[in-house]
Amino acid sequence: MSQKSKFIYYTGISEIVFVVLAFGVAAMVEPHRIERYFKPFVVMHIMGSMAWLILFVHQSRLALQGKIEKHRKNLNLATILVIFNTLIAVYITYAWGDAQRLIGESRDVLAFAILFFASIWAIKRNKPETHKRLLLIALMNLIGPAFSRVTSIFEWPQEIGVFAVFLTWIIVPISYDLVSIRKIHKATIIGIGFTLLSFAIMVSIVFSPWMRNITELIYGSQ
């Protein structure tokens, strides 16, 4: 396998390791988190999310080995996991009873799901390069909560975590392009643009003067 071929594969492995370490260390440093992790829906979310990440790495490996038919056969499983994880994640966040948190954290999983289905659209139209880049950017949209745990562990300002997430969203996909084709692919520009736009829309809603009305609409009078 060439270095450029390994990029997405090792990016998937790196994200799994980072997420496990971030959440694991956070649970040890802040024991109150452990009780949250063992709630039924949270357990299902953890298992579903890790299953998708592992499948991402497996699919990358199959593609590298040229086993395209086996790769395609897992499409339905990947789709089921995305739908399941999206619904579970939104429900868990909704259960917190905080509309700002619901909108803020739902952005991650909804952007991920939209980019995933866009990548499926691309592969069905025989655009594998677009497919790979949109899927890579979808993967990057899942990394926010792990960075949040890191800033919490070290008691860093939240802005540091946000900045790190922004860098990840931009640097990883562009690095893949520079390694693989030595220029920025159109799908990378679209994927990063969509990610940043969705973040800007989320922030504008969360800090808007209508947030109180939105809260009442979602949860009723509190």
Automatic annotation (TrEMBL):
Coiled coil spans: none
Transmembrane spans: 7-29, 41-57, 77-96, 102-122, 134-154, 160-179, 191-211
Taxonomic superkingdom: Bacteria
Keyword line: Membrane, Transmembrane, Transmembrane helix
Protein's UniProt name: DUF2306 domain-containing protein
Organism annotation: Algoriphagus halophilus
